[in-house]
Amino acid sequence: MKTDNQAVRLKKEILVRLVKSFFSEDFEKNVHYIPYDMRPKGANVPFRCCIYKERAIIKDRLIADLGFAIEEDDERSLLSEYAHKALSRTNNSSKNPLTVLDTACKGCTHSKILVTELCQGCLARSCQSACKFEAIQIINGKSVIDSTKCKNCKMCISACPYNAIVKVSAPCEDFCPVDAIGKDEKGVTKIDFEKCILCGKCIAVCPFAAVHEKSQIIDILKHLKKESKIIAMIAPSIVGQFPGNIYQLKSAMLQIGFSDVFEVAMGADVTIKKEAAELEAKIKSGKKFMTTSCCAAYNELIEKHLPEIKPFVSETKTPLFYTTEIVKEQYPDSIKVFISPCVAKRNEIGKNKDIDYLLNFEELGAIFIAKNIEIEKLKESFFDKESSGNARNFPVSGKVAAAVSKETKNIDAKAFILNNLNKPNISLLKTYAKSGKCNDYNLIEVMCCEGGCINGNSTIAPYKTALKEINKLTNNDK
Amino acid sequence: MKKITVKICFGTTCFVMGSAYLQDMLETIPVKYGSKVELIPAKCLGLCSKNGEYSKAPYALINEDIIAEATAEKIIKEIEERLQNEN
């Protein structure tokens, strides 16, 4: 779950400073000084061991924000050199868009069960009898866990009357649903992109904010500055992520330099129709169920870990795809930017040659702050065509299936909501693919983030208030 | 007893930097404190530019006192302190 915390705020502050530097007279020089501006001589050291380490980590965060991987950093290049490279590049691919900051990573130990000093070496030895795998031995009067036998079932933890046994965790490893993050032989945390589905959970859960997105913000700012024809396509989950309403938000985006703004909900209206027709056809042809296909992390999961479910997955394209088609027609030679709640979409835009860049909500917020945009004070700019309430509901868990079900006319759609791509839910999907059925449901909605896209890793507002704003908007619609 | 006035800034800077997470207080504070505390959702209070420090956003005002880097916990603590001093 995305929350507000010091690490999240720090990352946003760095982004604001980067954008301010970009619009300053000397971008390269000013970027170089950001770590010193944030932690000047004699300043308090709020988080780490010393001021030098804090500056080093801020530098690494900036390298990622400038669009480079820390893994490729030689530690000799100056930030000003990175800024120069970012300014002069013409291509910044969204392939493998995550990078791990080894400076920021605490180097948590592998997740395991540990007996602490609190063990009293008691007579009852409840831990030993609770362990089904015979992993606990008593050595020198104290319990010791044999890690080769331990299955992390945690039965011993509940059995100990002294609370002496604990689980130590590496949150990134714990939350990764596909075992794509872990330590290499030198103890440095690495992401295996052969396995990674870009669910973004490691970004959200790392308490040291050591996993970063490689941003495309500079590439976008360059186009905004030189007044290119640049079009923003806003994810429906943007509702409630900023003050004011979406029409004022459109004005704010025009003010920072976008030529036009489209709601991706427009494309969702197309997805609803096509997916409903496809569901009817599939069920009539004898298939027992179909899954939705708009979540980018789910689509990546299918490619890398769950090919057996492919025959059951809807072939209808995502709302972003259809929106891009509409934009392409109206502005054939434009730069197209998707405004995203999550990192998973970086994969999708990388595979769609018509979409140029991705800007996430936090990055957009940083541009608003740097440019002093007071969204609530702006006039409303309306969209050429209003999207439907059903389409604007897409980022909420359960509402994609609801919209598709409502649209079906000749069959009775029964939806199963798979909310959150974690290990147990992935196993469920495997079972459905194997057996070819999902109890008596015929439509499975899959969303990677718990609660839907409004809980994506780059969101700004909490789930509850975002949901309220979406309800407010969709209730006004027919 | 004098009413305590709490203003939480929901201008763009404060909202993005964290006050989005304080919107909940608009509901919880009246339930918790009734007529003792008045909570006002404010459009930009201008504090981020006055102090020249957007990095200290989000801001809140409790009576006339500025709370920088406001969190729900900080605001509740300040309210409680003032209520205790009154008694």
Describe this structure in words.
The complex is a heterodimer of chains A (478) and B (87). Chain A has 19 helices and 15 strands. Chain A has helices at 6-22, 27-38, 51-65, 79-88, 126-130, 155-159, 171-175, 201-205, 217-225, 246-255, 265-284, 296-305, 319-330, 345-351, 361-370, 389-392, 399-407, 423-435, 463-476; strands at residues 98-100, 112-115, 136-139, 142-145, 165-168, 181-183, 189-191, 211-213, 230-234, 260-263, 290-291, 335-340, 357-360, 415-419, 443-447. In chain A, strands 10-9-12-13 form a four-stranded parallel beta sheet, with helices on both faces. A three-stranded parallel beta sheet of chain A has the order 11-15-14. Chain B contains four helices and four strands; from the N terminus they run βααβαββα. Chain B has a four-stranded mixed beta sheet, with helices on one face. In chain B, a hairpin with a 2-residue loop joins strand 3 (60-62) and strand 4 (65-67). The chains are: A alpha/beta (478), B alpha+beta (87). The interface between A and B is medium-sized, with 28 and 19 residues.
